Amino acid sequence: MTPTTGRVAIITGAARGIGAAVAKRLSSDGYAVAVLDLDESACSETVDALTSTGGRALAVGVDVAEAPAVEAAVARVADELGSPTVLVNNAGITRDNLLFKMSEDDWDAVLRVHLRGAFLMSKATQAHMTKAGWGRIVNLSSTSALGNRGQANYATAKAGMQGLTKTLAIELGKFGITANAIAPGFIVTEMTKLTAERLGVSFDEFQQARAKETPVPRVGQPEDIAHAVSYFVSEGASFVTGQVLYVAGGPRG
Ligand code: NAP
Questions:
Q1: How far is the CA of 55 from the centre of ligand 1 (A)?
Q2: How far, in Å, from the CA of 51 to the mean position of ligand 1?
């Protein structure tokens, strides 16, 4: 039996992309995995992939920025899978535009999902972690936290994720809980596909251009991020907290 056997991990935004890869990795590491996303039926592909390889998994539909829905989702995970002691705040959206064209709705929508979502999910799950005297929180930031043209809302949200992470690390350390952030560079997902569409370039061309400007001359894959999450939530990483790891094929931060 590995130390992870019986531990329950919640991954938000796990129907696809980075979240789905994290769910698969933590399942193969031995965790039972709750796959959370806006639409419960959209989670079935990820859940089927986990259960078909012998893992325990549960699909839960939830908007991470709605407090009562978050409370209900975490309670359901605790009832059906067990008390969650690992949380990966991965759900996210982009609403890119230059500042002078960015609407208040687009500003609010992005901050709502990333910041309010991570706040509510962390608040709801920390009760289980403090009770267990053990926990791991991983927040998805981004290289955009350092500033990125057309992303005033997203860059602000992703910088905010770093402040949240450091504060959670300070408050929760005495309960055996670590909190760390991962700041990915360009990762091949629906999110970056949408960015290519918005810029009017093909996804292939967009990837080639990003790879060219990266010291490790390739684009990132969701599994690159899943590997970093696996490290942060591991038993041996208990003295690593409040950190931001740039997983971007080159130095950042
Ligand atoms: P993605 O493919 O767009 O997946 C994001 C998932 O989050 C989607 O399934 C989406 O559901 C879900 N989601 C959105 N709003 C939600 C909400 N309110 N409640 C619950 N789920 C919600 O994106 P990704 O590229 O995998 O990104 C995952 C995370 O990594 C995000 O936080 C992103 O900002 C961050 N990140 C990505 C990159 C990159 O290059 N891809 C780089 C840096 C950081 P719907 O499809 O229904 O909207």
A1: 23
A2: 23
